[in-house]
Amino acid sequence: MHHFAYRDGVLFCEEVSLAAIADAVGTPAYVYSTATLRRHFQVFRDAMAPLDPLIAFAVKANANIAVLHVLAQDGAGADTVSAGEIKRALAAGVPPEKIIFAGVGKTRAELGFAVDVGVGQINVESPGELVELIACAQTRGRKAPVALRVNPAIGAGGHDKIATGGGDTKFGISLADAPALYQAACQNPWLVPRGLAVHIGSQIKDLAPLRTAFQRVRALAETLRADGWPVRHLDLGGGLGAPYFDEPDPPSPSAYAALVKDVFAGFDAAFAFEPGRLIAANAGVLLTRVIRRQPRPERDILVLDAAMNDLVRPAMYEAYHDLKPLQEKDAAVETIDLVGPVCETGDTFAKGRTMPRLEPGEAAAFMTAGAYGAVMASTYNARPLVPEVLVSGDRFAIVRDRLSIEEQMGRERLPPWANAEPTPP
Ligand code: LLP
User: Fold this and answer.
1) Among 13, 136, 186, 343, which one carries the catalytic annotation?
2) How many angstroms does the Cα of residue 329 sit away from the middle of ligand 1?
3) Is 72 within a domain?
4) Do 143 and 263 have their domain in common?
């Protein structure tokens, strides 16, 4: 459930009209709902009671410091994949011990930084990384808390590009290699072994592959314990799908929690989860305005002021994002294509979408854009990054400014030789 709804024909975010935000801030702009973020976090936490897990929000889904701050205040940790994300989580008030540092390509500098700030868990994905982590810990004279991310040889997810658990992906240590590596971690004086981590994909709508993956993790953890190695923590990743529209809803957090409790019944451990999309997707929208209508014999094209550089998911994953007019329309619908101004055909949000008729100048909201929206934006076609706005009750605030093209160009310069050398004949 989210807090974007029509009131007397006007689309609101909590107590604020989105049209008022579009007028004040301009379009395109991302808008997030505090109440929705908090509610989703609460629903997940309630579902997982009494496991009382660490819920480490996946910062990659939405890295805005104001968003992270809302979740941190409610007790969330942070799942991070770069020094930049760790810095954002810390700046938002996430305590270091609630930060998990994951990712397949952590550099030595990033590992060192994570040890320095005292993150709670570093998920190691390869033997080489373990060696580097030991070196970092030893140089600093500070032990590093480590979990092994295993690849359970089963993937899942809404698109091939976001399934991570399959045996042929770049992620994690195979189940066969994990015991020797875990033993090595346990025997090293510079490491504090915590346990295992797993994550098999994103936008998962079927619990069956999760059950298999979790069963394999439990079996591995039991083998390790039988061999005398401590496995106190299990980090079960993120991945549970969010409802986008026009498709069957993914399993609920309570169905997912029931699965976890069933698979790990009688297995005493401290659990962690890394949900991103589930918390943030339906807590955000991307406001846009129609620039113009291009008549076509087959169906008209609506050119919007938002583009693939602002919200890349349709171009990248063929993702569906509902577009709701800010002013509710009568029943008249039409079938159109929705595109942005970027100069490539891939800048298409939808082909053959049937929706209420929108006229040039009218504003609308791409729904379910709070996760993997602003974070994946680029400045392609010299389009500035768009602002982000946070709503709380009847208030709203710009929590990231629109970057001007001058600010962007201000970071570029001609090389020193540009004006000195004569132009070749
Ligand atoms: N933990 C790990 C180790 C991950 O790799 C991910 C997502 C998550 C947690 C959070 O997954 P979530 O709960 O959000 O599904 N850009 C893509 C999604 C990429 C997800 C990558 N990893 C999209 O827009 O669909």
Assistant:
1) 343
2) 35
3) no
4) yes
Q: Cβ(16)–Cβ(222) under 8 Å? A: no
Q: Which of 40, 59, 60 to mutate to test the pocket of ligand 1 (most atoms within 8 A of CB)?
A: 60
Active site residue 343: yes
Mutate to test the pocket of ligand 1, among 160, 277, 279, 318 (most ligand atoms within 8 A of CB): 277
Same domain assignment for residues 353 and 380:
yes
Nearest to 302 by CA among 344, 373, 353, 346: 353
Are 313 and 388 contained in the same domain? yes
Query: Which ligand 1 atom is nearest residue 376's CA?
Result: 16
Q: Ligand 1 atom closest to Cα of 319?
A: 25
Give yes or no: residues 150 and 236 share one domain: yes
32 close to 389: Cβ distance less than 8 angstroms: yes
CA of 88: how far to CAs of 66, 72, 92, 123, 244, in Å?
A: 10, 12, 6, 19, 27
Full-model pTM? 0.96
User: Which residue, 228, 246, 273, sits at the end of a domain?
Assistant: 273
Does residue 168 contact residue 148 with C-beta atoms inside 8 Å?
no
Structural domain boundaries, residue 313? 4-31+281-409
Q: Averaged in consecutive runs of 10 residues, what is the pLDDT profile of the chain (425 residues)?
A: 94 98 98 98 97 98 98 98 98 98 96 98 97 97 98 83 74 95 98 97 94 98 98 97 82 97 98 98 98 96 98 96 94 94 96 96 98 98 97 98 94 89 67
